[in-house]
């Protein structure tokens, strides 16, 4: 990515728990790349919309998948569409002795920018290949590419990563000192998104590709996607 950190802006400056925020581009990229989907927020005709969608990152550009007839794709024609994109990984439940300090461990990225419809055919092909490769590295070369009609029916939004922030919580319960002796269990319950065993579609005669998991596996978040944070509170 072009620089090591994102600039701090009023929209990316938190009003509380500032110790959880980072502007490291590499950290943001790792969180975005690990996630299988994101949420796209925008306003059309004065009404807010938040939609889940698939995404992929190539260098400093975030690409979002959609249909040519969908709201955000239509609104992004011309001058573009102001958007907010969020990616979140829920890593653990945090149980405290008090209600107040129950929490979750998470890693998230919030991206602000203007989304433009990708009209360059070469860029669109690269973006779609990256989106397919999100499900398995090398999948785009191991499946049929779209026909001209299919390509025309698919739309891709591009957002340059210029304004973004990372926020994360790590660690255990942050109970008050006077609550530590209370007779209640407290601790962390890890959560993991774990791929299951591939289930072949009817009529498939080829073996499971090497880029797909052959069995259930441990999908713990990679260490380089985590954020070093200070003491947690809640």
Would you mind describing this structure in some detail?
This protein has 234 residues and is α+β, with helices and mostly antiparallel strands. The chain has a domain at 17-172 and 183-188: Pnp Oxidase, Chain A. The chain is 15% helix and 32% strand. Mean pLDDT is 88; it is low at 217-231. The chain is globular and about 65 Å long. The chain contains 4 helices and 10 strands. The protein has helices at 25-34, 71-75, 121-133, 148-153, and strands at 21-22, 38-44, 47-53, 55-58, 61-67, 81-95, 103-117, 154-160, 163-169, 187-190. Strands 1, 2, 3, 4, 5, 6, 7, 8, 9 and 10 form a 10-stranded antiparallel sheet that branches. The longest helix has 13 residues, at 121-133.
**Structural class computed from helices and strand pairing:** alpha+beta
- Provide the residue-averaged pLDDT: 88
Helicity, as a percent range: 10-25%
Overall 3D form: globular
CATH first level of the domain at 17-172 and 183-188:
Mainly Beta
Distance between the termini: 33 Å
Tell me the number of strands: 10
Q: What's the number of helices?
A: 4
Q: Determine the CATH superfamily of the domain at 17-172 and 183-188.
A: Electron Transport, Fmn-binding Protein, Chain A
Oligomer: single chain
Structural descriptors:
234 residues, alpha+beta, Pnp Oxidase, Chain A, 10-stranded antiparallel β-sheet, 15% helix, globular
